[in-house]
Amino acid sequence: MTSLQDCRALDAQDPLRELRDLFALPAGVTYLDGNSLGPLPKHAGERIARAVREEWGEGLIRSWNSAGWFELPQRVGDRIATLVGARAGEVVATDSTSINLFKVLSAALSIVQADAPARRTVLSERSNFPTDLYIAESLCRERGFTLRLLEAQELASALGEDTAILMLTHVNYRSGAMHDMAAVTRAAQAAGALAVWDLAHSAGAVEVDLHAARADFAVGCGYKYLNGGPGAPAFVWVHPRHADRFWQPLAGWWGHAAPFAFASDYRPAAGIARYLCGTQPVLSLIALDCGLDTVLAAQPLGGMPALRRKSLALTDLFIALVEERCAGHGLGLVTPREHACRGSQVCLTRDEGAYAIVQALVARGVIGDYRAGPPDILRFGLAPLYLRFEDVWNAVEHLREVLAGGEWRRAEFNRKQAVT
Ligand SMILES: *Cc1c(COP(=O)(O)O)cnc(C)c1O
Questions:
Q1: Which of 33, 43, 237, 331 suits a disulfide with 218, CB 3.0-4.6 Å?
Q2: Annotated catalytic, 214?
Q3: What are the angstrom distances between the C-alpha of 28 and each of 41, 358, 364, 391?
Q4: Which CATH class name applies to 4-40+303-419?
Q5: Residue whose C-alpha is closest to residue 130's, from 141, 138, 121, 119
Q6: Can you give the residue ranges of every domain in the chain?
Q7: What's the pTM?
């Protein structure tokens, strides 16, 4: 049996323990929702205030050059590249995940239409995040392709002569299950298809090596494990072998080879710069840059491999404590036990009351979230940058008390809100 003292001992030995100090975490809160919105880095407020006061206020339009605003998508993109196995100059931070997915899927469809016009199907997982499926559905309708949705275990055998693209999210938002990116990419490409990856729940949480996997395209989210703030710009990567082949469909002036020539015809920039569309949200890019400061602060302490080791230790502990301390309360585990198949979250099921249990936990300061089913899911993100092993202990203790006392049955915890 694991004790609170054991958890405190793990914290004392944790090489990443000092990174928690980089965040302005509210007192009395155990934050297990950094996979949905990362917490505020302590220095972000002052950095953004300075950008407002000095760069906007004093520098005015000159700041596009003097404060480096114009290069922010590339500069921030280069920092993200180091976290996902991409190279400098291959990633831009821009737009939203949904919009970037539209751009890369469209470019991928163009490549398939040119190289293998008989391929007409886009494959994805039925439990993929809905916006990914909606974007794919709308593009397939527009371009005359068919979107086919399958269960994860059906994908390998469904790849075939008709498959144009396999579009997957690396770590599933509902279950926390993680694909083997290299193996799945290899299988897709062996079948003649392109592999498009969404790294929304991976970047900053698990090790990703896009080049080693020989992936074709990738997008990811800035406001989850990268701690870039609400609505932070997302990112986009295209393998250099594809980057110059086609226009992306949102051909705006920021993706032009010479935007300040103000030419009346479009000439795409070389490389990833053509995946920019219009003027970018400078203040939000600065907030994302602050978020990346927190993730990159782990570099001298072992970087992503060290974060991944701690993430697995946190999720292992969470699972073990739930099974030791909440046994008999009807909880099920959906997240895979096998490390290679697990992201950085633990998802539990319960036939009754999942929503209300999450609300009761939030009222106690333990913030996780609920995802409607079936099966209904209690979702706990365990971000290794700022969570302590003691936090895991406390979260499970609160969960045990909420279940044992029947507190979740109260009416106040059973009223649904729009966003949880
Ligand atoms: C969080 C998430 C998104 C978010 O997309 P937005 O365009 O930022 O709303 C998209 N896809 C996946 C898989 C996600 O987890």
A1: 237
A2: no
A3: 17, 17, 9, 11
A4: alpha beta
A5: 138
A6: 4-40+303-419, 68-296
A7: 0.97
Residue at token pair 């992936």? 215
Q: Taking the mean position of all CA atoms in its chain, how far away is CA 138? A: 22
What's the CATH fold of domain 68-296? Aspartate Aminotransferase; domain 2 (3.40.640)
Q: Which amino acid is at 400?
A: R
Strands (E) in 232-336, as ranges, are 234-238, 332-333
Q: How close is the Cα of 131 to the center of ligand 1, in Å? A: 7
Beta strands in 136-229 (DSSP E): 146-150, 163-169, 194-198, 217-220
CA pair distance 304, 31, nearest whole angstrom: 21
pLDDT for position 66: 97
Interatomic CA distance for residues 394 and 391, integer angstroms: 5
Ligand 1: which residue has its CA nearest to atom 14?
200
Same fold for the domain at 4-40+303-419 and the one at 68-296? Answer: no
Q: Tens of pLDDT along 149-180?
A: 999 999 999 999 999 999 999 999 999 999 99
Helices within 162-302 (DSSP H only): 181-190, 210-213, 240-243, 282-296
